[in-house]
Amino acid sequence: xxxxxxxxxxxxxxxxxxxxxxxxESAKLxxxxxxxxxxxxxxxxxxxxxxxxxxxIAAHQLxxxxxxxxxxxxxxxxxxxxxxxxxxxxxxxxxxSTDRLIALVNxxxxxxxxxxxxxxxxxxxxxxxxxxxxxAAELQALVDAxxxxxxxxxxxxxxxxxxxxxxxxxxxxxxENAIKYTxxxxxxxxxxxxxxxxxxxxxxxSGIGIPDSQKIHIFTKFFRAGNAIRVDTVGSGLGLFIxxxxxxxHGGKIWFESAEGSGTTFFVTLPVAPIESNV
Length: 279
Ligand code: ADP
Hints:
This protein is of the alpha+beta class and about 280 residues long. The chain has helices at about 5-75, 85-115, 130-140, 140-145, 165-180, 225-230, 240-250; strands spanning about 125, 150-155, 160, 185-195, 200-205, 255-260, 265-270. The protein is built from 7 helices and 7 strands, in the order H-H-E-H-H-E-E-H-E-E-H-H-E-E. The structure holds adenosine-5'-diphosphate (ADP).
């Protein structure tokens, strides 16, 4: 072959090889992109399913108190009460259902904030002892109604850095659960003291306990053990999910020990000055 032509052919061959190799790289890149897109799509689908489940459970939980209020409104409208006592009784029920709705909506908003990464913990001075005492005072009517003996062993002042509102919510949930899930006439004991650089707290009740098979799910949102549903039909199963997030955002820990039929103790430890608050 003519040497010029030979050279031209070789040049064209080299160019062709380059083009083919570039195409090969592009094809590999496309496959990788395709895989990443498929994975992202699957994650979005899973997220979508989780969101639908969340909305469906939330809507289901909102429906019960709303139906109760609607039914009582209907009775009010048509004056269907036996007497004044009966009327007041039903109005009280409507008012309780409204409180329940507000608490539920607040919990749902908190869970949504946690899940979307918008949950904010604001650090300030908190007196744990004051906070626990205030919650216990608020729950006194429930304590009396259930004839519970409430014992508190709290150091006089336990000052820590934390989010006062959110920690109060945690104490409220743990104390209310201890009262709710304890048989009438039972005992609830709360203790809190500083040990080293953390606060050690315990919330013990002589109640229904948590079945072994269900312990693993206790901090999962919307989860309620079968024995708890039988005792209290209106719980949401959101309180402990939120409590765990709050305690962990403070750099603390929450866990429990329980025996079905004998009682439960929830333990909380909180650092006196969490790292996050030193900014
Ligand atoms: P809720 O009390 O509204 O159901 P929580 O998130 O506070 O929601 O609690 C989740 C579940 O954990 C309860 O439904 C119950 O099964 C269990 N639980 C929590 N505290 C106790 C307790 N002190 N004794 C027995 N079971 C408990």
